């Protein structure tokens, strides 16, 4: 459900949050009212993003858990929302970090677009591509970056990005947030931002600790669809997160030790989800049958690529 938030006083009770006339509010089953930036709405309205409505978040799991039929579309909106909430909270608490509004928007867009490259049945499609074309070593993150570039090109969104003061370097930053990079011999691997803002690369996909807003959303969203209750509280993790310059390692998002039980509950929730749903024996059997069907159809069905 999408509403036009033309009346800021009615639509939002927090006086610290500025709601523009072009912002939209989405009613989400997990996070409630989600307010999204006009540029995010422009991206959402493209055919490339709308296709995520038809990509199931959990692949074939809905054959075992009928309610687990939610899509990558709603998950992506949730990650965008949580990314903005986490960075907004850090920006308010630590003004000395000099987080710019453009930084926040880039991280939100990365959260929104991080799953653009997923194919039918999500991760099962990734397994299929790598089995059918083993030499490609295809990953959905790389496909998401390519889809992001394609989305900008075919929908002429460059002017929209410039309208909100996002240039080529910001787009590079977004691509790096989506695709990730590995540091070699301690050399800074990114070009979008410098080491002083390394913590921004830990918001959507945290390669260092695994604690990020992507997991927060899908742990809670998936559990909800299974009728399971998770005990970890991501709101507390947001409120207590601080950016610290760790000696020898740079600027990192850190969580105080008093939240260790909360973090334990978060990783325990992940284990429970894998044990009871993601790795369910019937789900794996269905995946195997679908894989056989995909591989069989691959010999007969061909799609024309962009340059063919």
Largest sheet: 3 strands, antiparallel
Protein structure class: mainly alpha
Q: What's the CATH H-level homologous superfamily of the largest domain?
A: Hypothetical protein af1432
What topology, given as strand order, has the largest sheet?
1-2-3
Which strand-content bin applies to the residues? 5-15%
**Helicity level:** 40-55%
The strand count comes to 5
Q: Under CATH, the topology of the largest domain is which?
A: Hypothetical protein af1432
The backbone outline, from C-alpha atoms, is globular
Count of domains: 2
Order of helices and strands: EHEEHHHHHHHHHHEEHH
Number of helices: 13
Query: pLDDT below 50 for ≥5 consecutive residues: which ranges?
Result: 1-19
CATH class value of the largest domain: Mainly Alpha
Distance linking N and C termini: 38 Å
Mean pLDDT: 89
* CATH architecture identity of the largest domain: Orthogonal Bundle
Explain what the structure shows.
With 308 residues, the protein is mostly helical. The protein has two domains: 1-36, no CATH class; 39-298, Hypothetical protein af1432. It is globular, with a radius of gyration of 20 Å. It has a three-stranded antiparallel beta sheet. The protein is built from 13 helices and five strands. Mean pLDDT is 89; it is low at 1-19.
Quick structural overview:
The protein is mainly alpha-helical. 49% of the residues lie in helices and 7% in strands. α4 runs antiparallel to α5 (101-113) and α7 (140-154) packs antiparallel against α9 (168-179).
């Amino acid at each position: 459900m999408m509403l036009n938030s033309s009346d800021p006083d009615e639509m939002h009770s927090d006086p610290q949050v500025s709601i523009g006339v072009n912002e939209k509010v989405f009613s989400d089953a997990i996070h409630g009212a989600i307010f999204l930036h006009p540029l995010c709405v422009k991206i959402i309205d493209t055919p490339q993003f709308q296709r995520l409505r038809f990509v199931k978040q959990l692949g074939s799991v809905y054959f075992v858990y009928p309610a687990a039929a939610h899509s990558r579309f709603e998950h992506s909106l949730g990650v965008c929302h949580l990314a903005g909430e986490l960075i907004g909270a850090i920006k308010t608490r630590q003004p000395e970090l000099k987080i710019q509004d453009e930084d926040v928007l880039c991280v939100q867009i990365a959260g929104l677009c991080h799953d653009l490259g997923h194919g039918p049945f999500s991760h099962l499609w990734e397994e299929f591509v790598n089995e059918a074309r083993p030499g490609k070593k295809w990953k959905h993150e790389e496909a998401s970056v390519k889809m992001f570039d394609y989305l900008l090109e075919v929908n002429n969104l460059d002017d929209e990005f410039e309208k909100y003061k996002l240039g080529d370097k910001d787009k590079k930053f977004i691509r790096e947030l989506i695709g990730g990079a590995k540091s070699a011999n301690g050399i800074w691997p990114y070009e979008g931002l410098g080491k002083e803002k390394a913590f921004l690369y830990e918001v959507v996909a945290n390669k260092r600790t695994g604690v990020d807003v992507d997991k927060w959303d899908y742990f809670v969203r998936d559990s909800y669809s299974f009728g399971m209750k998770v005990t970890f509280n991501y709101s507390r993790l947001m409120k207590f997160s601080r950016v610290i310059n760790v000696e020898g390692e740079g600027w990192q998002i850190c969580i105080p030790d008093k939240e260790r039980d909360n973090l334990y509950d978060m990783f325990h929730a992940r284990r429970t989800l894998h044990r009871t749903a993601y790795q369910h024996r019937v789900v794996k059997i269905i995946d195997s049958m679908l894989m056989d069907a995909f591989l069989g159809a691959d010999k007969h069905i061909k799609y024309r690529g962009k340059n063919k």
